[in-house]
Amino acid sequence: MVLAAFIGGFVASNAGSGSDIALYIFGMLGWNFLLPHRAYSEATLTASSVVTMGLLSLAGALCRALTGQISSEVYLCWGATVWIVCWGAPIGSLLLTPALQSYLRIAFYLLAVGQFVGFAVLKIKDQAEAWTLFGVITFVVLGFLAFHRAMRVRSLQQMGQTLEPLTLWNALGRMMEDPKR
Q1: Rg of the chain taking only CA atoms, in angstroms
Q2: Which of 26, 4, 3 lies closest to 148 in space, CA to CA?
Q3: Do residues 46 and 24 lie in contact, with contact meaning Cβ atoms separated by under 8 Å?
Q4: Fewer C-beta within 10 Å: the chain N or C terminus?
């Protein structure tokens, strides 16, 4: 967890976000995989990452305010977006019902990929070296996820469980199924 926090902090200092998602990824792919008898639910890990994000945002804002590094443009951007949090969080908590959870999960995945691609397009622009690094890191992460899946399938097969093949329709079906079952 310390390593995930360190890496997330490094990413957050350079990109503005990271430790919250690193904590979530560590919980899903690390903690829950290594200690399945003490696994945390998706909801618990999501709540933990939201609290982490809020605390880091508060700490970062306080540090910048105390050192006088907040420009007028930052205040204007803050004023333009603060209503989204003030209204979006309560509305989101009303929408996050068991019946809508699978749809919101798909929307979250699509928004995360869109945010990732949007960040790359806006920040990298026409820098060939950066696009190469972006591609290599993306390839490494996808490779790690494939390795993680292979290890998980192997451990489940050793426990005697039968597995259905991974297809697009099976993956969509799993995202849509009721987590309480």
Answers
A1: 19
A2: 26
A3: yes
A4: C
Q: How far is CA 93 from the centre of its chain?
A: 18
Q: Which long-range contacts (CB under 8 A, 24 or more apart) does 51-54 make?
A: 52/19, 52/20, 52/23, 53/17, 53/20
Residue pLDDT, tens place only, 88-107? 777 777 777 777 777 777 78
Q: Residue 27 in contact with residue 40, Cβ under 8 Å?
A: yes
Q: Which of 5, 21, 33, 22 is nearest to 111 (CA)?
A: 21
| The pair of three-digit structure tokens given for residue 131, joined into one six-digit string | 């696009």
Return the axis-axis angle of helices 168-176 and 101-124, rounded to nearest 10°.
Answer: 120
